[in-house]
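We emphasize that the prediction below concerns an isolated chain of 391 residues; any contacts that depend on oligomerization or on bound cofactors are therefore not represented. The input was used exactly as deposited, without trimming of termini.
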Amino acid sequence: MPATTTDVLTLADRLFRWADARDWAGPDPYDGLTGPLGRLAVHRVLRQGLLQTVKRSPVDLRTALGIRPLRTATATGTAAGACARLSASPVWRQRALRLGRRTAAEQMSGRYAGLWRYEFDVQTRWAYFPASVPNLVATTFCADGCLDTGTLEDEAVRSLARALLEHLHNGTFFTYTPTSDVLVHNANLMGAALAARLARTAPLSAGLADRLADAARRAVRVSVDGQRPDGSWPYGEGSRLGWVDGFHTGYVLLRLDQAATLLGVDVRAALERGVDHYLRHLFDGPVPRYVAHGGTRRDPNNDATAVRMAAWAAERGFAGADFARAVLAAVVHRYPGLGSGAFPGNRGLWESPRWSVAPLLDALTALHAARPDEPNPAAPTAPAGQPTPTA
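Result of the prediction step, given as a token string:
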């Protein structure tokens, strides 16, 4: 079990090096439509069937289907924010700046200037959005990474703020994409947290900041009102969106706490009920469950988010530090560069920079930050013959 801060940061360094050696490119659970067959899948059922086949196949089909490794801004943005927590170390600060600048360079121009997108078409059970359209999840992870590293120019921040309100807010809540009217709770609260953060950012005018804060407050109220009596949140509001899973619940709790703290809104009661449900029903001991009341299906994003949430719960007084360490110990050996190399299910799922590596890096640095009382080891050094990354 990784029992000390030194152990946690050693794991973070190894994970970073694994991804950085591959230039943060790799497979993605939703890359099934990027190959030649994706261009032929013109119907919703065909798109979803192809995407899910590639994602869930126990054998990695990407090479056979002509699907090439992807580098996504979401992965580099998430990793930039993770590295920024360790900026007291010159090496980690250089890493953070390099990834932040790369993410900032992918900010969209044109009609959706200021936002970010996925680099692949996505078909879900409730929506289809092509790679040319921005989405709130990508925008939040990328924007946070750039803001954490200070790699957005003032005009880029203003462009982001304007576009967030114009394209991803419908007057009541934040929407997943500009064309969606479906309430997805984790996306709505990501938008609320980002808007609340931007409202406190210097380059914005007072009028724009006030609009952002007002939109964030309305969005928080919508999702607090959407909490079920048992403390859970459904993925979204709709006939086919009622499931409860671990990583989306984690996103809801984390972003609700962040938005409420920035806005000065009291959501303690909702948080306490949500955390109680999360810890009771989405863990089997220290092992994360994928869905509430379900089995312990292994998924790298769900597992990484569980570590991140255990660190948050310890920091906020909802759980002890021992629980966070136990969750990490239960899952860490499955990740590339950290364990035996034996991956449950599709290997590509676990080697995904966006879905696996960057979320765990974020969790590891958050776990370190939640335990500041332990000694901070010396900064990592580059191996012999390998230059230290430059900013």
